[in-house]
Amino acid sequence: MTTFYLLILFMLPAVMAVGIAIPRRRELSAQWVGELVIATALLVLGAMLALCRLPVGTVIVSPVVGLSFTFGGFQRLYGLVVCFMWLICAMLSPQYFRGHHHLRRYYFFFLICLSFTLGVFLSADLKTTFLFFELMSLGSYVWVVQEETPEALDAGKTYLTIAVLGGLVTLMGLFLLQHLTGTLVLSELKDACAAVTDRTALWWAALCVFFGFAAKAGVFPLHIWLPKAHPVAPAPASALLSGVLTKAGIFGILVVTVYLLPGNRSWGVLVLILGCITMVLGAVMAVFSTNLKYILACSSLSQIGFILVGVAMLTLLGEHNALAAHGTVLYMLNHSLVKLTLFLFAGVVYYNTHQLDLNRIRGFGRGKPLLHGLFLCGACSLAGIPGFLGYVSKTLVHEAVVELAVETGSTAITVVEWLFLLSGGLTVAYLTKIYVAVFWQTAPADAHAASRRWGTPLSVAALMLAAIPLPMLGLLPHGLSEKIAAATLSFTGGHDFSHAVHYLAWENLKGVVISLSIGMLVYFLLIRPLLTERRDGEIRYRSLWPAWLSLEESVYKPLFRWLIRVLMTLCRVACDLLDLLVLVMRRTLLRDTRDHVRRSPHSSVVRAMSHNSKYSQEETADHVGTVLDTFQRMEGSLSFALLMACLGLCLILLCVILHVFG
C-alpha cells in the first residue's frame, strides 16, 4: 500500500496535468477542469495523511535514479501543509480564473509543481532535494509570467535568473560536500561533516548550498525576485510562492545550519545578520508601498527575516535552544497559513475590482462582515496578536533572543531584540494601512458599486479553511501548537522545554505591547501625515520609496553590464593577439609554399558517386564541393562553436554527475 500512496503523491498530479494539457477536439469546460484539479489535490492530501501512519524516520528508496524519501516529523508537517495549501488554492482558482486565458497551462504547472514541492520536503538526501528543488523552481516560473504583461515577463526574467544562478552554485556546493563527506544522506550528514578535517572547504560547501536555498527563500541580497514576482503572479500562485516555495528555501537553510555546521557560532552570526537586514528591509518597503500584493510580498520578505533570526538562535543557543526550535517551526507554519489567507483575500479583491492599488480598492470591504473577519484572522496572526498562532511563534522566537542577550550580555544581541520589536511594529503599521483603506474608508467616486456577495461558495469555503487554523492553533498553544513543533525536533536539532512557557505572562505580553505601540506611532506619525494626501476631498495614498534604492536596477544590472563589456574586451584582445602571433610566425619562421597542381582528393569518390548516375563527373564534383563548402562555413561559424561548446559542457557535467553520484 505504501507504493500505491507514493504513486498517488508523485505520479497522480503529473498524469492529471498531462491529461489536462493534451489538446482535444472538444475542449473541457473550465468548471470541469477546476473540479478535476480540486479532486486531484484532495486525493494527494489523503495519500499524504495515509503515509503519515508510517513509523517516524521511515526511508523509502525509489528504483528510479535512486531517489529517497523520508517521513520524519518535519517532513510530515510540511508535506501536509503543502497538500493543504494546494487544495485551498485549487478551490479558489475556478472563480479567480473565470474567463482567463491560458487556463490549461496554469493548471498543468499547478499540478506538476505539487509533486515537485512534495519531493523537496520529503527528500531523504540532498541529491533528491536538489533535483526536485530545481524542477520546482523551473515549473513555478510559469506562474510568474502567466499574465504575459510586460511587468510579468520582466519579473519572470529576474526570477529565472536568480533560480538558475542559485541552482548552479548549489550544485557546486553539493559536489564539494560529496567529495568531503562521501555522502549526501541527511541521516549520515551530521556525523560525516563533524569528521571533516578541512573546515575551510566545508565552509565553502555550506556557503554554496546556502546561496541557492537563500535565493529561493528571498534572503537579502538575493531577495530582488520576490517583490517583483508576487504582485504580477495570479493570487493563488502568489499564495503558494510566498507560503510554500520560500519555505523550501528555509528547509535548505535549516539543513545547512543543523547538519553541515551544527553549533558553529560564526555561522549563526552570519545567518543572524542576514536575517536582521531582511527583516527590517522588507517591513520598511511594505510601509512605503501602495499596492496590496506588493505590500504582502514585502511582508513575506520581512517574515523570512524573522524566521532566519529563529534559525540563527538554534545555533547560538546550543543546548538551550528549546524556545528557538519550537518558535522557528511554528513561525514557518504561521507564515504559510497567514500568506495563504491574505493572498487569497487579495485574489478576492482583485477578482471583484480588477485593481490592487489602495487608492482604487478603498472601501471594498465595507458591508462584508465575513470577509472582514477572515482578513482580521490573517492580519492579527501576522502582527502577533494574542489568541493567534502568530503570537505563539513570535513570542517563542523573541524570548529566544532575550535569553541569548541575558546569557551573553552582548549589546549587539540587545540591538537585534529591538530590531525584532521595531520590525513587528512596522508589520502592525502596514497591516493597519491595508485594514483602514479596505474596510473603513469610503470607495472612490468613480468606483463601480460592489455587490455584498464577493465570492462563490467554494471560494468562501477556501478562505474560511485557510483562516480557521490560525486562531485554533493560537488558542491551544500547549495542547496543539507545541506538540506539532515538538514532533520536528529531530530535524531542527532542538531540545524539549525544561519548563512551561506562560504566554499570557507580562514578560511575554510586553513585547507585543511595544510592537503595537511602535506600529501605531508609525501609522499616525508617518503614514497618515507623510504617505497620504487629501485630494478632491478624498484621502489618497502615495509611495515615496526612491527608485535608486532598487538593488537590481542600481547594482546588479550595471554590474553585469560592466562584466559583459570586460569579457567582450578580453575576448577581443585574445583574438587580436592570436592574429598577431600568426602574422609574426608567418613573417619570420614560416614561408608561403608555391601553389602546385595536384589531383583532387575527391576524384575517386566523385567517380564512384557518378557511376550509374545521371550526373556527369563534373556535375557530381560541383555538388560535392558545394556541400563541403557549406559544412566548412558552418564549422567556422560562431553558432556552431557555441553548439559544440554546450554539448561539451553537457557531456562533462554528465560525466561528473556519474562519477560523483554513481
From TrEMBL:
Superkingdom, natural source: Bacteria
GO aspect biological process, one term: ATP synthesis coupled electron transport
Keyword Transmembrane helix applies: yes
Molecular function, one GO term: NADH dehydrogenase (ubiquinone) activity
Domain (NADH:quinone oxidoreductase/Mrp antiporter transmembrane): residue spans on this chain: 123-412
Main location: membrane
Keywords, in A-Z order: Cell membrane, Membrane, Oxidoreductase, Transmembrane, Transmembrane helix
TM annotation in the entry: 6-24, 36-56, 76-94, 106-124, 130-146, 158-181, 201-226, 238-261, 267-288, 295-317, 329-351, 371-392, 412-436, 457-476, 512-531, 638-661
Stated name of the protein: NADH:quinone oxidoreductase/Mrp antiporter transmembrane domain-containing protein
Organism: Vescimonas coprocola
Organism phylogeny: Bacteria, Bacillati, Bacillota, Clostridia, Eubacteriales
